[in-house]
Design goal:
- The chain is an alpha+beta fold.
- The protein is built from 20 helices and 38 strands.
- The termini are far apart.
Length: 1097
């Protein structure tokens, strides 16, 4: 807006405006900010009786402004905002009170030092004279000075290779023509006729040659491009129409045409020989693993040979032995990782006689086991009969290149080699589906860098990757490459950038982003370079908020939501520049700790971790545990020395070694995402930063085509009820909820809620009416992959007061209560609780590829109830192969709010009788697919899951013993009211299973349980196959369970092993309602043996 007005605060957030008014603390205090809901509109915020009232200021077609005030007050129009404000200083204008005290803008003092420490990388200027347009004499002097400078430069150059006529032409231009061009510019003509004449003279022969060459290349191009019809093309027409076109234009056409011809020819040739391709054309070499096989407590050396191309896994007794014993890919049913022994893996296979065998294998190290699992998963994927993938892998890399050209070999970056969580050599040639590369201080051109990346990947994978998008802001760049086979699965590609440099107008700092749809799953990637300097932490936080607010990616219909809510999977990478917050005097101490690889003390002072713990930035994001050395600030050309001092005119500046370069992620609830690698390279040393890599396995949804007859299929429904919002605001307004989802035809709104104020600054809003949402497709295969985005809005200005997300998979089996954290512009603004019930048509969900690998939690039970309960209960939990989608991350330290949780069903729901006290449904007991490892009434192949191996995954796979307290950390205090009604009576003291962020029974761990007609002791019907799972025969030494963990329990009854239908982990639709926890064994549901083979009394 024109001129400086102290009461105009620009695009500050609504919450910031409320804070400023609260500090003013006088009735009639006011400010004006930009509207968050309507572009070009404003919001007038007025404080009265400690409440903030917001009025929209809207422009009409003539751009005149009016205030939406009380009804009955005549609408007045104003040309300028100052005029409007002046009028509303008067009384009786329809506001709650007239304007009295303007709240001043806060001075942005943080931005000034940024200019001193890091000046923007502007292009060099040619004009060195101090000319002013208003002074003709000084202009003439500047032009003459310019001519003299260039003539002097020309004299010092080697012109031996330049033809005499060209030399004379350049000299003549600098003598006279450059002065004439300068005069033309002063008169408003920017065409520089002298320069044009010079280039035409020098390029005379080139010009005629280009004119001669272009038609032939155009014909060749048309022959390669089958999609274009033959005939005279646009290039020839353009050339013949305007014979006076510039050389640069013709060269640009020639360059584009040559690049296009090269790409099309490569594509055609590569495809014809199978060089290009994805899962089915890339050639992954055969890999052999030397392992030990456990059988009856005896370890035997063995060799596993993995042939991905033929789809076979060979079991050999010697490296060069016969290859007569093998299993084809479709006979390899499951891989089950031991969590206690990180080198142990159980391979579940089916023999020709349809028998299920379990082979316990021990690898040399955990990395080898991971490499083997990745190869087997690649084999299953390659030979899958599914038309569309349900799981892909994504490589994410970030590197501050330090304005230096990269070295010839950067292969280690893309193979995740170096420090940290790295991949095994056996996985070197497994191609990722997507490669996302973010660079900062990148000196290369877009095309040059993209060609380097494609060349490196071609050498590693034998695949010619396709460029999905490339986006550059100054020297900040992001490149997205994809397998060619995915080309038709990618759509809705968007890119955008945000400047956060000096005054948010320069692009030396900021972010670039790319988003797209992969079939039915949305992806977002943000590469940012934030403000540097150890002391600039708050400025970096503000950079993050600005990027989050103004980066425009994803579905434009999701306007109320920032980018953290718009994507199924969002990855944020870059040089975030957060430092280790220790005094500069500790520099040598820091280096010593790094050499000793003792990172934990330094990580505790990592600014990003501290700001995240304080919920100031990256709320609800996850980051893999850091196990690599700080990636900044190295001495170039070595990784042995940190150059942490820098001499400047103002003194010595310290840049302590820090983890500046990071990769974080945020995904919708209950979706599959696992981090396979996170680390940095050791051998790329041209910059003072080391490249950082991360690799992720993520679940994706297909573009669904229902197999059901739309006329006969029952109509599905989503019921959301009993919603209560707690909002941290001082606004005096009414609220309603909007529901968004790609599975809905349109946005659905609730009616106004009822407000009740609280003294702690929160407003509680009840939305009593039940909302019925009608999905476009009712098939469970489709619906269970969908999410509902929720936005709580105000009625006065239609602005969001908080957004959140609910997974429909949470309500797969029954009515489920939810508790989600509401956020807005990266800040926590409140909570929303309620219930959701899902009604789908008949249909079965298919098993996902990521269900192929499971986690076995097989360490001794340290507390809680008896082991047999766990063996039974976690028959479902085995399906959780990934803790991240259940809210369990790999970070060290306490994790608090994860953004969402789902509770047990309440007592009054007749879904499973007595079992409701254990929560007839729990999202923590299955994979995101809802596939249950124990086969129920309507499922087959039960013998595969009778093995207690599938009852041993009580916790998710990365945490071990400290998951208990982290589960507690996920539980927000308000969630207590949504605990299962009988949960306190009996099920709180068992060890936690993998759950969403908040579990309703993570407290009262030692509370006694009432008697139940079920033995919690392991069953005694031991089978001889057990020792293959006995952890090398150590299981019999396990101590008996403490008596306090099973109070009031009857004596064990061996024949009556606990029925799977008796525990809370079995979904209600698999439980016959008449059983209500009765101990009636069912052979298809019983475990064959106790988890560790412990005898009973």
């Amino acid at each position: 807006m024109p001129g400086y007005q102290p009461w105009y605060h620009g695009n500050i957030t609504r919450s910031k405006a409320e804070d400023l008014l609260s500090k003013a603390a006088r009735d009639g205090s006011f400010l004006i900010r930009d509207s968050e809901s309507i572009q070009g509109a404003y919001a007038l915020c007025v404080l009265y009786q400690n409440c903030v009232y917001t009025y929209r200021i809207l422009p009409n077609e003539d751009k005149k402004l009016s205030v939406q005030a009380s009804e009955g007050v005549p609408i007045r129009f104003f040309t300028m905002l100052p005029e409007l404000v002046e009028a509303y200083y008067g009384p009786n204008m329809g506001l709650v009170t007239h304007l009295q005290y303007a709240v001043q803008r806060e001075e942005e003092v943080d931005e000034e030092p940024e200019a001193n420490s890091h000046p923007p990388q502007l292009p060099p200027r040619n004009f060195t004279g101090d000319g002013k347009e208003s002074d003709a004499k000084s202009s003439e002097q500047a032009v003459k000075s310019l001519s003299d400078i260039y003539l002097m430069r020309l004299q010092h150059m080697d012109l031996s290779t330049v033809p005499e006529e060209h030399h004379m032409a350049i000299q003549e231009y600098f003598k006279t023509s450059i002065c004439l061009d300068a005069e033309q510019v002063q008169n408003g003509n920017p065409n520089l006729p002298g320069l044009k004449k010079l280039t035409m003279s020098i390029c005379k022969n080139l010009y005629s040659e280009v004119t001669r060459v272009l038609p032939a290349l155009e014909v060749f191009h048309r022959a390669l491009d089958q999609q274009l019809s033959p005939g005279i093309g646009p290039f020839q027409k353009q050339i013949s129409v305007d014979s006076g076109q510039s050389v640069s234009y013709r060269l640009e056409q020639l360059t584009k045409l040559l690049y296009s011809i090269e790409d099309k020819a490569k594509s055609t040739v590569f495809e014809s020989v199978g060089f290009e391709g994805g899962h089915r054309k890339s050639l992954i070499p055969i890999v052999t693993f030397e392992v030990k096989q456990e059988s009856l407590g005896i370890c035997t050396k063995m060799f596993l040979k993995v042939d991905i191309e033929s789809g076979k896994l060979f079991f050999k007794k010697s490296k060069d032995g016969p290859e007569d014993k093998y299993f084809v890919h479709n006979k390899i049913l499951q891989l089950v990782k031991s969590q206690k022994m990180h080198t142990k893996l159980t391979i579940v296979v089916e023999t020709e006689k349809e028998k299920i065998l379990r082979k316990d294998i021990v690898f040399d190290d955990a990395k080898k086991r991971e490499g083997f699992c990745q190869l087997l998963q690649q084999m299953k994927n390659k030979h899958s009969e599914k038309p569309e993938p349900d799981m892909i892998t994504v490589f994410v890399g970030t590197w501050n290149m330090g304005n230096a050209t990269p070295p010839p070999n950067i292969t280690s970056w893309f193979q995740c080699k170096g420090q940290g969580k790295t991949q095994d050599d056996t996985a070197d040639h497994i191609p990722h589906d997507f490669y996302v590369i973010g660079t900062q201080e990148d000196p290369l051109g877009e095309r040059e860098w993209a060609d380097i990346l494609k060349g490196v990947l071609r050498n590693i994978t034998n695949i010619s990757y396709k460029q999905v998008a490339i986006n550059t802001l100054w020297n900040i760049r992001i490149v997205v490459l994809a397998k060619p086979e995915h080309e038709n699965r990618i759509s809705h590609v968007f890119s955008d950038s945000v400047k956060t440099g000096i005054a948010n107008t320069l692009g030396n700092k900021g972010a670039v982003g790319v988003s797209f749809m992969f079939n039915g799953t949305s992806f977002g990637f943000v590469n940012s370079h934030l403000t540097s300097g150890s002391e600039k932490k708050l400025r970096r936080n503000q950079n993050y908020i600005n990027i989050l607010r103004f980066l425009n990616l994803g579905d434009k219909k999701l306007n109320p939501f920032d980018i953290t809510h718009r994507f199924t999977h969002l990855f944020w990478l870059g040089d975030l520049n957060y430092r280790v917050e220790l005094p500069s005097t500790e520099a040598e101490y820091i280096v010593t700790k790094i050499k000793q690889q003792q990172y934990q003390e330094l990580l505790s002072k990592d600014q990003l971790s501290m700001e995240r713990n304080d919920e100031k930035v990256f709320l609800h994001f996850d980051e893999e545990e850091i196990t690599f050395a700080p990636t900044y600030r190295f001495e170039r050309d070595t990784r042995e020395k940190y150059a942490y001092t820098k001499a400047k005119a103002t003194g010595t500046k310290y840049n302590l070694p820090s983890w500046c370069d990071r990769v974080l992620r945020k995904s919708f609830p209950l979706v599959h995402v696992v981090c396979q690698a996170y680390g940095c390279t050791n051998d790329i040393m041209t910059s003072d930063h080391s490249p950082v890599f991360a690799a992720f396995e993520v679940g994706v949804a297909s573009q669904f085509v229902s197999k059901q007859d739309p006329n006969s299929a029952s109509q599905g429904g989503i019921q959301i009820m009993n919603c209560v919002a707690s909002l941290l605001t001082k606004s005096k307004t009414k609220f309603f909820i909007e529901f968004y989802s790609s599975c809905l035809e349109k946005t659905v709104k609730t009616s106004e809620g009822d407000n009740a104020e609280h003294t702690d600054g929160f407003i509680k809003v009840w939305f009593g009416n039940q909302v019925e949402l009608t999905p476009i497709i009712s098939d469970p295969e489709y619906l269970l992959d969908q999410h509902i985005l929720i936005c709580v809005k105000s009625t006065d200005c239609d602005e969001s007061y908080g957004e959140g997300c609910i997974a429909l998979r949470a309500a797969q089996f029954c009515y489920t209560e939810f508790h989600i954290t509401l956020t807005h512009h990266g800040e926590k603004t409140g909570t929303l609780t309620g219930g959701i019930q899902l009604r789908t048509s008949e249909g079965k969900t298919t098993e996902k590829l990521y269900d192929f690998i499971k986690i076995e939690k097989d360490d001794p039970i340290s507390k809680g109830k008896g082991g047999d309960f766990n063996k039974c209960a976690n028959a479902h939990a085995i399906d959780i192969s990934n803790p991240s989608y259940m809210g369990v991350s790999f970070k060290s330290g306490n994790v608090t709010d994860k953004g969402w949780s789902y509770s047990m069903p309440p007592r009054n729901l007749p879904i499973s009788g007595k079992d409701s006290k254990k929560g007839g449904y729990d999202v923590g007991t299955r994979s995101p697919t809802g596939q249950v490892s124990v086969m129920g009434e309507n499922e087959k192949s039960s013998e595969m899951f009778d093995n207690p191996l599938y009852g041993s995954m009580e916790k998710s796979h990365s945490r071990g013993k400290d998951q208990d307290h982290q589960q507690k950390d996920y539980l927000p205090p308000p969630d207590s009211q949504f605990l299962c009604s009988k949960g306190a009576e009996g099920d709180f003291d068992r060890p936690p299973v993998p759950t969403p962020r908040s579990r309703s029974y993570t407290c009262s761990e030692n509370k006694p349980q009432p008697p139940a007609p079920i033995s919690l002791h392991p069953p005694s019907h031991k089978k001889p196959v057990v020792p293959s799972r006995s952890e090398g025969g150590v299981a019999p030494n396990r101590p008996p369970l403490p008596a306090k963990s099973r109070p009031g329990m009857p004596e064990p009854q061996a024949p009556k092993s606990r029925d799977y239908r008796d525990n809370s982990e079995l979904p209600s639709k698999h439980k016959p309602p008449t059983r209500h926890g009765q101990p009636q064994p069912h052979k298809d549901m019983l475990p064959e043996v106790p988890k560790m083979g412990r005898p009973v009394k």
